[in-house]
Specification:
The protein has helices spanning 28-37, 61-74, 87-97, 104-115, 119-133, 160-195, 211-219, 262-267, 269-276, 292-305, 351-363, 378-386, 409-417, 426-460, and strands at 11-19, 41-50, 78-81, 100-102, 200-205, 236-242, 246-252, 280-286, 313-318, 329-332, 338-342, 366-373, 390-395, 401-408, 422-423. By secondary structure, the protein is α/β, with parallel strands linked by helices. β8 (280-286), α10 and β9 form a beta-alpha-beta unit.
Length: 461
Amino acid sequence: MFFERPDSGEVSILVHITIDSESERDDPSEFEELALSAGAMPVDYITGTRRQPSPSYFVGTGKLEEIAEAVRAHKAELVLFNHALSPSQERNLEKHLNCRVLDRTGLILDIFAQRARSHEGKLQVELAQLQHLSTRLKRGWTHLDRQKGGIGLRGAGETQLELDQRMIRQRIKSINKSLDKVRGQREQGRRARKRAEIPTVSLVGYTNAGKSTLFNNITEAQTYAADQLFATLDSTLRRINLPNFGATIVADTVGFISHLPHQLVEAFRATLEETASANLLLHVVDGANEEHTHLMDEVNAVLREIDAQSVTQLQVFNKIDLLPDVQPHIQRNGEGKPFRVWLSAKTGEGLDLLEQAMTELLAGTQVREEVLLRPDQARLRSQLYAKEFVESENIDESGNYHLELRMPEAEFSRLLAQQELVSLNPSAGEEAQQFWAEKELTEKAKDEQLAEVNAAKYCVN
């Protein structure tokens, strides 16, 4: 029911009204891109200004007649509003214009329905559509099932509208049950990655910023990437090996947009939890877009809504191939940590700098040490090579391996403390013992603090 779409586009009239009382205003050009992404064929774009929306039609009577004239002149099948319309406004407009009317939320839901490919994605979109539809059921059939007096006129006791509402509630309940299973499976996968100490890097950003192109170049995947809004809908995870760090999971997610419908945020919460639980967020920004600062604010607003604002964030300014005199480089903060990387996902320029910045943020402080491995430690040597920790190697007359390593300090200290490595630096062993002693004290303090919080909750209850 919800995924059958016509192959050809629909002749459409676009309407954008600037409301003086609104502090945040939608971009008219972005709305046109949304319409094209949905497969619409815009033939006219009607704009205007109002102090307040009209309760009945959203627009005034003069603008309403202008829209009706455009519909008749172009034989339009659809009128798209770049605003959120109430159910009554939508019904009144359809009755007056004699064609289908869709608001911004309905248009975005339609695009999502076209893009959904996985079973989970289709469930999430259908849930959002049903939540949106439940307030827009029309009363066309209510007379068919009313109770009346007299023989042969007693109905079932429920109007058709009530039957529709009950079926929608049952379907929403069924979808939520299925999504709870998906959420459990995702949580199980996250726990497995945590046990294996494999961090997750999640790509976030405004729609059409180039996330999927960047994802394909980093992971050598073949996910769908196109120059259109919401080209990616289904979340994709791939495993990569970062130089001098090791295995990492990279997740490509759905793009954000200004005034993202609340139904979509709720429906895609199972998918967006991957973002909230990530170790690092790559905030991909279209560096060639003059409005990139505003778009970044919109993305951060959605991140706050899904409780992901505290995750470490690395800004990735993409599309430098469209900017004159901009070379790939890393920007660092006052502490010397990377916070922004300039690159081009399309040409591949700067991808090595991105991997370097990701390694620094995930690994923390790195050390360069020379160690000794015995001949019977070939398995450990193989693991060090697999994680690309080894920079050089020599073998002495006894068959021992002399390795020069560059790796995270925590990993190096753990191997030293477990006596799996013998460092040729005399002070390294003492530093490792001190590192792990301080870490144990920190973990103990956290456990004690958590116990106090739980005890306080228990007393309150």
